[in-house]
């Protein structure tokens, strides 16, 4: 009976998605159009444009196939997920301030633990990178749009139902509770074995949501590969392709090989849970799941970190006053990371008892992959060496990225050594190492990109002082929180526990204080971001960062300059004075000079 109910729920969700697609097709025929900013100019011939303009209001956002609009949708979605995942972990850290379970139950803690990890990795990490990629790659390579604009839109619209499915256990649905499997979903727990509560439909819904997010990422990856290969301007060759596009191209290749494997493993797990198959419910099934999951899971780390490396490699030289040192070696190291990332997955399994010869080979590759990462790090440092450094908010976040990446990388090298890993495995040391990369590096690069390109997608400038407060609170909070976790790991504190021995209380309380500092920084970011988007001073100059002084302008800023010169209101009718995105005329609006942000 329970199987029939779960099957009916799955069919109902499929029917709902088909109904949504049919409705969208009915309200808008998805006519092709050439966006004004997509690569053509106002001076083009009439044949380049159709007579119909974009729909307005909500219909525009529901039916758009413009890469810039879809990039903004990805960004808004990712930031909402970041807020949800962040509030989840704040509640967990408040609980961990006391050794006993005083605020929430152990069961609810496990639910938050599971959803926090999945939310941050699949609903924030991948989409925020897709936001940058969608908006800027066509601008950087001189393309009119993505190669497959409609597929681009479909890839995004798979994500909202994925989030609803992943979070479904927290909704007031009868007889459905959140998954408590941790983000790794290890079997036999996730297979519903035994008398625990993981036979609940909340786990099935979470697995279906993960599968949808993987389909979305795979569709996006195919689109990015096709776009970079086929849509480049004739002046953009492989030799002068920008570093951000190189990292996204490599990331897309990893997605293409890694995510389908995760989807296959999830389908096998769903079959085990609902139809009595025996993929993971037999002897060796737990090890099989770990091999399949980590063959996806470790390339996933590089799927998340390569585009942030590209952002830093693009942004950092702009405020160092010189071009990126060793550009070719940064590209080669990116490709090397992509290849080596598929040969290290079993370093997550050193403690499982696999053949020592296999363990040694995975240790060797895991140590070797640190070399291309170190190449990038030395290139960033050398780029800054004797440079004309301007400590703008984007530059501060780039420097914070490099600092945290070094800490996260060095702690990772220790975990790649079998004897050290056997001692530190499954302790808070692993949590500290991983979060130095995910929060201290990936999120910092994301913030660097958001601040650096803020004038392009808003037409305005943010509040400089609040931006720097955001950086310093984030930097202090990150290091207080996660360095305390490193020390907890050295002390032997196991991860994923809601309660712990009293001797760990002080370090846990320090980590909680650090998490609250991080929360304060993100609240400042939200206020600054929203208020500046709505009311910030309007940017008139196409070079708000004064990049032209050092001849460091890139293609997206040339596009922005053209946009300012040819600005027309959404209705397509020219006015006597050029209008900004905020609806004010440039003559009347507050303006901002070329900003040094210092």
State the gist of this model:
The protein folds into two domains: 63-281, Cytochrome c oxidase-like, subunit I domain (Cytochrome C Oxidase, Chain A); 305-541 and 552-562, Cytochrome c oxidase-like, subunit I domain (Cytochrome C Oxidase, Chain A, Up-down Bundle), CATH 1.20.210.10. 64% of the residues lie in helices and 1% in strands.
Describe the structure.
With 598 residues, this protein is mainly alpha-helical. The protein folds into 2 domains: 63-281, Cytochrome c oxidase-like, subunit I domain (Cytochrome C Oxidase, Chain A); 305-541 and 552-562, Cytochrome C Oxidase, Chain A. 64% of the residues lie in helices and 1% in strands. The protein has 19 helices and 2 strands. It has a two-stranded parallel ribbon. Helix 3 (67-96) packs antiparallel against helix 18 and helix 7 (201-230) runs antiparallel to helix 8 (243-275).
- Main β sheet profile: 2 strands, parallel
Span of the ends, CA to CA: 65 Å
SSE ordering: HHHHHHHHHHHHHHHHHHEHE
CATH topology of the largest domain: Cytochrome C Oxidase, Chain A
What is the number of helical segments per DSSP (H or I, 4+ residues)? 19
Secondary structural class? mainly alpha
The share of residues in helices is: 55-70%
CATH class of the largest domain: Mainly Alpha
- Strand order across the largest sheet: 1-2
* Backbone shape: globular
Which ranges are low-confidence, i.e. pLDDT below 50, for 5 or more consecutive residues? 27-51, 569-596
Estimated radius of gyration: 24 Å
Q: Please identify, by name, the CATH architecture of the largest domain.
A: Up-down Bundle
What value does the average pLDDT take? 87
Count of domains: 2
Transmembrane segments: 6-25, 70-94, 114-141, 153-173, 205-229, 241-271, 291-317, 329-350, 362-382, 394-416, 436-457, 469-490, 510-530
Membrane topology: Multi-pass membrane protein
Keywords: Electron transport, Heme, Iron, Membrane, Metal-binding, Oxidoreductase, Respiratory chain, Transmembrane, Transmembrane helix, Transport
Region (Disordered): 568-598
